[in-house]
Amino acid sequence: MTSSGDDIGERDLLAYADGLLDQDPARKRAVELFLRGRPEEARRMRAYALQNEAIRTRFAGVLAEPVPERLSRLLDAERGRRPLRGAARIAASLALIAIGVVLGWAASESASQDEGVFVSRAVAGYRSGAASHAAALPPRENHLGWLSQQVAVNIDVPDLSALGLYPVSRSRLPTAEGHSTVRIEYGAPAGRRIVLVIGTRWQNRVPTIHLAREGGLRIAHWQDGPLSYGLVADSDAVPLEPVAEMIAERQERKIRAIGREPEVIRDVRSLGTPQPAALPAVEGNPAHDGETQGTGTRVN
Amino acid sequence: MDDVKWLIAREIPHLRRYALALVGEPHAADDVVQDCLERALRKRSLWRREGSIRSWLYKILYNEHLQRLRRRRPTASLENEEIDLPTPALQESALHCHDIAEALQALPADQRAAILLVALEGMSYDAAAEILDVPIGTVRSRLSRGRAALREAGVGSEQEVRLRRLK
Questions:
Q1: Does the predicted model carry a pTM greater than 0.80?
Q2: Choosing a second label site near A177 at 20 to 30 A (CA), which of A229, B31, B60, B121?
Q3: Contacts with B118 from chain A: Cβ below 8 Å
C-alpha cells in the first residue's frame, strides 16, 4: 500500500468515484491527495459520483413497487402452461380481417384435439381487440421477438459428467421425411457406451389448412412446427384460404432457409384490400415469387 | 416454495429496477425479467451455491436482454428501438440532457449495462466483469467511455442533483 502520487491511475480514480475504495482508507487518502492538486480531475470524479447518485435516485421508485402478478405467479406455480403475454401485435389496415396468432404449447399429439382447442383460442384472440382502422405498423415492429423466443430452442449436448459419461462423438443423421436428427455418443471409463438421439418432432412440410366456423366467424387454422395459426374473419365475402396459404407457404420457406435474415412485411397495405380479383388463385399451387408481390413483400 | 425459489423471489424488485434502467421501457423491461425468471427456474439446479444468487440472476437477465436485442435487428441503433429517441441528434449536438434515463438509453448497451451494475447495485468491477462475461479491463473502459459520454450530455451536474432532491 503506497501513498505516492505516481501510483494513482485511472483505475484508482474510477474506483474512488464509485465508492469502491471505502474499505481501503490508505489508498482512498492517496487518491484524495492526488486530486487535491488536480481540480479538473477532481471535478470529473465528482461528476461521476453524481452520475451514480442521479441514477439511483431516478430508479429508486421501482424497488418500492409491488411485484406485478405476471412475475410473482411464476414462482407460485411453475408447472403447466406458460403465462401468455397477450395476443401478438400484427395489425393490418384491412378492416375486415383480423389475423390472430396465438401460441399453443400443448404437448398433446392428437391433431383433432388440438384443432378444437385452438379454434376457440383463435376466436378469443380475434375478439380481444377492437377493429383497427389505423395505418400500417412501421417496419421495425414486424419482428415477433417474444414469440420467436418462446419457440426457439438452444440445445447443448447434455452434460452427463456427474454420471461418469462424456460425449465422444456427435453427428448429424440424414434428414428423413422432413425430420432433422442429431446423434450423440457418450463413452465412459468402464467401457459403457450409450447413444442419445435428438430429433425434431415436426416435419418440415406445408401444413394442411383447416376451415371452421364459430359464432358467426370463419376460421382458417393449421399447425406448423411449434406454432398454431388461426386466421379469423367475420364475413363470407373475405376469401380466407388464399391469405392462409400465403402465410403457411412463407412460414415453411423460412424454416428451410436457416441462417438467412427473416423476411419482413415492408408495407402491410400491399397485402391488398380483399377483392377477389387482386388475390392469388385458390385452386392449384399457391403463388410463388413474383406473381403477386411485385413490391417484394413477404410474410414473416 | 423451496428455498431457491424464495431466494429468487426476493431478487425480483432489484431485477426489475435494473431491467428498467437497462431496457428503458417498463413493459419490455418486465418481459426481460419474466424471461430471466423462467430461465432461472428451469436451470436452478445449475446455480452453484458458492456464488451469490443475485449475480447469477443478473447474468441471466443480461443474457436475455442481449438475445432479445439480437433477435430484433443486428444494427447499431437496435437498443433504442423501444423508445422513439432522436439518438443521432443527442450524440451529435451534445444537448444538455435533463433526463438521465434518456441519456442512458443513448449509450451503447454494453456501456449502459456496466454503468448500471456499478451505479445501481454498487457492484465491484470484478463482480460486474463476471456478470458481463468480459475481463475487468473491459468493464473499466466501458465505464470510462460511458461516464464521459454521460458527462458530455450534462448528466450528474451539481444543479441537477439538487433539483432532483427537491421533487
A1: no
A2: A229
A3: 18, 52
